[in-house]
Amino acid sequence: MSRALPKYNKRRVVFIGGAAAVVLSGAVIAGSALAGTPDKSSTAQSARTLSDPGTISCPDVKSQLPAVPASAQAEVDRNLTLLDTQIAEANKRLVDTVGQGGANFVQNAILGPLKDKRVSTIDRIAIAIGRQGTKPTGLDSLATCALNAGGTDVGGTETGGTDTGATDTATPSATASATDAAGGTDTTTAAGTISCPDVKSQLPAVPASAQAEVDRNLTLLDTQIAEANKRLVDTVGQGGANFVQNAILGPLKDKRVSTIDRIAIAIGRQGTKPSGLDSLAACTLTK
Asked: Which residues is 181 bridged to in the sheet?
């Protein structure tokens, strides 16, 4: 009887030791699992970063306009609404393209094209006012927008932006690299080249009083193609499958619509305004 107790005690010690080992192993496994689990607050922060790419802020144009003649009010209001639409579309593109492209993706694919659109729209507003009064100047300084990321202003302010990019004017250096000829331009790159329909050959007789303005805008069409071809080269490899259409061809078409419309208006002041020229605005990418 007295010899049985030691055996019992041994069994109890072995049992307790084994249980302790199991508990210890469980603690080690649990600790390892917890160590490999991302912190919830960190995960939430990442999610917020991806879902909140920021918003685009643009200077207010309406408040900077002079008195608008009654006859121009409808056209001015229509283009002011278009400015709002352009910002909304740019903000949507900002969300849809989170994580795409390189460091300059937002500037090249969103802010740059938005500025180009705003330059053309603001110019139409100025022209409309100028038909019945004095055409306002300096409004193109309101075309540049900025990205506000996480409440921090990056590159601009909500009011009174600075026009630091390409403006809607023709330059000899730009026109030297492209021609607005049917079937395309003479510039060929590894990224392809942009081809646009010829506008000049489709025009009716141009009144002498409109010739200078028409020529200036025809030159501008060449400049726009040259700038688009340059952007095509500079952004090779950026964005997704629709990058070229969304960031280059689409904005180019918008600029050409405005420029072609100015040509038609200039001709129409002294004669019959040509119609159907907007069908020449769309361009294509040729590899």
From this structure: 184
Three-class secondary structure of residue 181 per DSSP? strand
Query: How far is 268 from 274, CA to CA, in rounded Å?
Result: 7
Tens of pLDDT along 71-124? 999 999 999 999 999 999 999 888 888 877 666 788 888 898 898 889 889 988
Between the alpha carbon of residue 227 and those of residues 15, 199, 280, the distances in Å are 82, 18, 18
237: left (phi over 0), alpha (psi -120 to 50) or beta: left
Task: Say if CB 108 and CB 243 are below 8 A apart.
Answer: no
Partner residues linked to 286 by β-bridges = 193
List of residues 6+ apart from 82 with CB closer than 8 A: 121
From CA 242, how far away is CA 67, in angstroms rounded?
Answer: 42
- For the entire predicted model, the pTM comes to 0.47
How many angstroms separate the CA atoms of 246 and 244, rounded?
A: 6
Burial class of residue 77 in the structure, from the number of CB atoms within 10 Å of its CB (0-12 exposed, 13-18 middle, 19+ buried): middle
